[in-house]
Amino acid sequence: RRSWAEPYKIKVVEPLKITTRAERERAIAEAGYNTFLLRSEDVYIDLLTDSGTAAMSDYQWAGMMMGDESYAGSKNFYNLEEKIQKYYGYSYIIPTHQGRGAENILSQILIKPGDYVPGNMYFTTTRLHQELAGGTFVDVIIDEAHDPASLHPFKGNIDLQKLTDTIDRVGAARIPYISVAGTVNMAGGQPMSMANMREVYQIAQRYGIRIILDATRAVENAYFIQQREADYHHQTIAAILREFCAYTDGCTMSGKKDALVNIGGWLALNDPELYEEASNLVVIYEGLHTYGGMAGRDMEAMARGIEESVQDEHIRARVGQVEYLGQKLIDWKIPVVVPIGGHAIYLDAKAFLPHIPQDYFPAQRLAAELYLEAGIRTMERGIVSAGRNKETGDHYYPNLELVRLTIPRRVYTQAHMDLTAEAVEEVYYNRDRLEGLMMIHEPKYLRFFQARFALK
Ligand code: F0G
């Protein structure tokens, strides 16, 4: 058969509000042309993020009723611990309120001032925590990742030469760990291959350096390995995930993505001494080490979400929906990052709006226009997200100036995808009349969340 369909049916619905163009004009101006500052009530199709936006299953909701809200030793924690040990394979688990809570603790225990952290492209919160702990992030992703048109099947791969050059330049003693992400969000949701992970592991072994995985979308990464890497066509997603994690010494995790929950995350480690330190720090920033800022019911929902997330039919439908929308845009010759990634379609704003210089925030402008056109909310992933160099104070000028159409898990139908594609097409036809933006308010940290803009 040529068609696929979702491996679930809809039991509860949430009505959407359809706004007029005049209402949207007012809303986006009030939001300073920043889609993060819109009220969700004014949004029709919300593709801002796949983070915390999933629809939970009846099995997860049933788990919410089984919350053990004891301060210490909740039975839901032990269930969560067991599921992470089973599917991800790590020894010690510390729950955190979400991914960045784990990143904070990890960075504090491992990074000393003057250290370097090589990684396959940065993620905003991950890099900031590395920097706040005194480290410097070094991008060692392959060059193809910075080229939106490259069809490399594993654009999340680490360039082994860049990695060993970095190690030789700064010395292994200055590298607390190699920061590996699968899939790579800022590169367009691009995967890293198992072969590459294995090679990075061998290098890390040779120099005695740890590898820490950002496991946020590692299940989606496993799907691409299954589809694109010869030795893995007949392996289950669960088996691939286990092997991928086995090459690493621990992970930070935002459960709000792969694990199909609205809130939650964890830090996992294999080294008992590091675990000891981390479980001591978690009580300062998150909560006791058996809840880490999560309610018992939320830990139960995450434990059950993990089980569902590694089902082959779930992940095929999930990534399949993203590919469906992406393929439509490709067919209509709209510039998008290729190959289509795991969680989102990324419009290439440099190619979409070539007449707007990067200093005038083309991706930010395009995101505002998609909202004006059809009430679709997306996210800038370009110069605004990249922030400023902490030494020089200049903008970072990333090669990739993108708008992310992020697909929440199990939330929207194929008709929503069709409508989205048509709205993008409409904006594309009228692109010549768009002008850039000026930033009129710039927060110090993670500016993209709260910056404000005005039309040029
Ligand atoms: N790592 C990656 C790769 C992420 O995409 C995110 C969050 C985090 C870490 C941080 O996790 O939000 O739970 O604290 N990404 C969201 C997004 C915000 O929209 O891509 P968190």
Descriptive terms for the model:
13% strand; binds ligand F0G; 14 strands; 16 helices
Structural summary, described in words:
The protein is built from 16 helices and 14 strands. With 456 residues, the chain is an alpha/beta fold. Strands 2-8-7-6-5 form a five-stranded mixed sheet, with helices on both faces. A three-stranded antiparallel sheet has the order 9-12-11. A two-stranded parallel sheet has the order 1-10. Helix 7 (194-207) links the parallel strand 5 (177-181) and strand 6. Helix 2 (58-64) runs antiparallel to helix 11 (296-309) and helix 14 crosses helix 16. The protein is globular. The site of ligand F0G has 15 residues, from helix 4 and helix 5. Its EC number is 4.1.99.2. Homotetramer. Keywords: Lyase, Pyridoxal phosphate. The modification N6-(pyridoxal phosphate)lysine is found at residue 257.
